[in-house]
Please model this.
Amino acid sequence: MSQSQVCPILDGSLAIAKECSIPEYSPAMKLQPKQIDYTYFFNDTTAKRKPSELRELSRLVDQLPPGSIKLGVGVPNVHTFPFKGFDVELASGEVIKLNEGELAAALQYLPSIGYTPLINKLKEIQDQYHGAQNWKVKSIMVSSGAQEGLSKAVDMCMRCGDAVIMPDPTYTGAIDLFRLHDAEIIGIKQDSQGVLVKEMEKVLASRKKKNQLMPKVIYLNPTACNPCGTTIPTNRKREIYRLACEYNLLILEDDPYYYLSFENVHPTSFMSMDTEGRVLRFDSLSKIMSSGLRVGFVTGHNRLLRQMELHMQTSSMHTSSLSQVLVHKLLSHWDNEGLVSHFLRVKKFYKQKRDHMLLAVKKHLSGLAEWYVPCGGMFLWLKVIGLKDTRCLVTARCLEKNVILAPGYALAIDPKKPSPYIRVSFSIASHEDVDRGISLLAEAIREEIQAV
Ligand SMILES: Cc1ncc(COP(=O)(O)O)c(C=O)c1O
Model:
């Protein structure tokens, strides 16, 4: 089972987009070849959402020509704020300094969709990595991490008791969002290349045949997924996309580890193959810039993004202005070349960590556990041989030895079922701690096997 998997290839071309706000949906904006009835994906709350007049005004103000007289705008005056400047020292030693206009934007309310200059930069990035997108029908909304975007997408679609398809195990932050809607979570088994498409197809065909409630949404974490570390290859993604089209499903592509793929070529995203406008893509700067800045972004069809923007208008209003302006400043400072070399640096760092972890597990856990070689990200998913459940092992025996791990049951769709898995993270532990921690895990496994 310890084998590396093939990662997909991407060839995107750079196109600089000009627009940033989401135009109201008009039937003239068609994605080829099929037009989706998005109202099918909206629940009753979403159907009730109306634009907030004042938030719409803030979007309008953002587009006014310089010199316009702003008498209707109820925002505080930034000159009363106790900040005069904002300089940030980068890890390279360089200093970036917000100019007067940037500082004013960083201290002020923004349109709910996000900071226009940042959105324009993010559009360039999406075009570069996922192929030129049609920004007449698609938009980007900046969110407080991928999590906020995901949460708003789930709140937009799910009615109480709706069904959703997701890999089992999966990121608990996603499972928990669906649980809030009492969702029927249909877990799909995985192998070294992610979800098994045949299983997914079987479930969908059988439910349709039996006239059962059909899921509206597939949730996937396609690159170096949390917790398994596997990446879904392009051919499998194409089959999943075909199923989504056939059964009229939205794909929630939650991809925060995209830039942490260890392969030489970037994965082909669902978004890059989306001809029908049924992919909502969630990106995050948490793993490559800072998780504390809380900057992520959602990309998708205007009709879907507009509903999420309306939700943003009445919840947090927008992602932190300071974070958005700072990220924009950094991206402008780096330009594409600087960004790419930053990605490479971060990837190299985690790849070295992964390689060291693999040496340690090979040394201490051979014969005691099985694993796939993670294609990227931060996680190694271990299956303990000879134990049906790792609950006691992780929550008692390892903790007694001061080793903290994530037990498999905690990442399963049904946490009550026994799970022989453990998620090990290689992101922050030093080489010495990895060696010692994995050797103590081996000791704990032996003790646990003896005890049961
Ligand atoms: C699969 C997955 N999605 C989303 C998130 C949330 O990321 P963010 O910090 O961008 O909200 C995480 C965080 O660990 C994650 O692993």
Observations:
- Residues 321-365 form the longest helix (45 residues).
- The longest strand covers residues 138-143.
